[in-house]
Specification:
Layout (H helix, E strand, L loop, with lengths): L5 E4 L5 E5 L8 H9 L1 H4 L22 E6 L5 H9 L3 E6 L3 H14 L4 E4 L3 H7 L5 E7 L17 H10 E11 L2 H12 L4 E3 L5 H4 L9 H5 L6 E7 L4
Parallel strand pairs: 3-4, 3-6, 4-5, 6-7
Antiparallel strand pairs: 1-2, 7-9, 8-9
Helix pairs in contact: 1-4
Length: about 240
C-alpha cells in the first residue's frame, strides 16, 4: 500500500510541510533510538512570543548556530558537525526514516553538537532570535515539479523573509538541487530578495561542489540532472 501524503500545520493554521512522514518500517535498533535518544536531542520550542535560547540546547559552549532545513539521511549535518565541533547545529526533517538514520550516526560517533526538530522547519525558524544563525543549508529539497505543487517549495518569498530575519549579516544561505526547474525558481526568488546576494562570479562557482560541502547519497544519484550548488550571502542590515 502506498504511503499516505501527510502534512504538518504551522501554528497559524497554514499548511507548510507536505509529503510522506514514514517510509519502510524502521529496524528495531533505529526504532529504539527514536524512543531513547530523540526526546533528549529534540529542540524544545518555547511558546510564542518567547524566542528560543539556542545556546542552552548544547552541553558545552558553542560559538555559532548553523541550521539545516531537510537533512535527509543526515550525512551532511553529521560531516559539518564533526568538522566544526565548536558550532551548534539544528537539523530539521519530518521524515522519520531520515531522523532514524541521523540518530544512528549521532549515537555511533557520540556527537554532542546536533539537535533535531523532527517537524516543520518553519517552527524552529519562527522561534529563533533575530540574527542568530551563522549559516543555513537547504540542500536538494523536494522539487515539486508539477505546476500546481510549486507553492509547496520551501524557497519562496515568505520563507526567504523568515530566513533573512534569523541569519546574521554576512551569513551564508546554501542551496542545492539537481532539478533545473527548481534551480531556476530558487535563483529567481532569492536573487530578487533584497536581503541576499549571490556570491557566484563564474560558472565553476555553481557547477562544482565546494570542498566544505560533502556529497550525500541523494546527490550521488543525480536523479534529475547535474547538481547545482548556490551560495547566497546575507546582506548587511541597514
Amino acid at each position: 500500500m502506498a504511503e499516505r501524503e501527510d502534512d504538518t500545520r504551522h501554528p497559524s493554521g497554514r499548511q507548510t510541510v507536505y509529503g510522506r512522514r514514514r517510509g519502510r518500517k524502521l529496524r528495531p535498533g533505529r526504532a529504539e533510538l527514536l524512543d531513547r535518544l530523540l526526546s533528549r536531542l529534540a529542540v524544545p520550542l518555547p511558546p510564542a512570543p518567547t524566542r528560543l535560547d539556542w545556546r542552552a540546547l548544547f552541553p558545552r559552549p558553542v560559538t555559532d548556530l548553523w541550521l539545516e532545513v531537510g537533512f535527509g539521511a543526515g550525512e551532511h549535518v553529521v560531516w559539518q558537525a564533526e568538522h566544526h565541533p565548536d558550532i551548534g547545529f539544528i537539523g530539521c526533517e519530518p521524515f522519520v526514516n531520515g531522523v532514524g538514520s541521523l540518530l544512528t550516526e549521532i549515537d555511533r560517533g557520540a556527537i554532542d553538537n546536533i539537535r533535531i526538530h523532527a517537524e516543520d522547519a518553519r517552527q524552529v525558524i519562527d522561534a529563533l532570535p533575530v540574527a542568530s544563525v551563522g549559516r543555513c543549508f537547504v540542500l536538494f529539497p523536494d522539487p515539486w515539479p508539477k505546476a500546481r505543487h510549486h507553492r509547496r517549495r520551501f524557497v519562496r518569498p515568505d520563507n526567504l523573509d523568515a530566513l533573512a530575519r534569523i541569519l546574521k549579516d554576512g551569513a551564508d544561505l546554501r542551496l542545492a538541487s539537481d532539478h533545473a526547474g527548481l534551480v531556476d525558481w530558487m535563483l529567481y526568488y532569492t536573487r530578487r530578495h533584497g536581503a541576499f546576494r549571490w556570491t557566484a562570479r563564474r560558472a565553476a562557482d555553481w557547477r562544482g561542489r565546494p570542498p566544505d560541502w560533502p556529497p550525500t547519497r541523494y546527490e550521488s544519484k543525480a536523479l534529475h540532472g547535474p547538481p547545482v550548488f548556490l551560495t547566497f550571502r546575507r546582506q548587511p542590515r541597514r
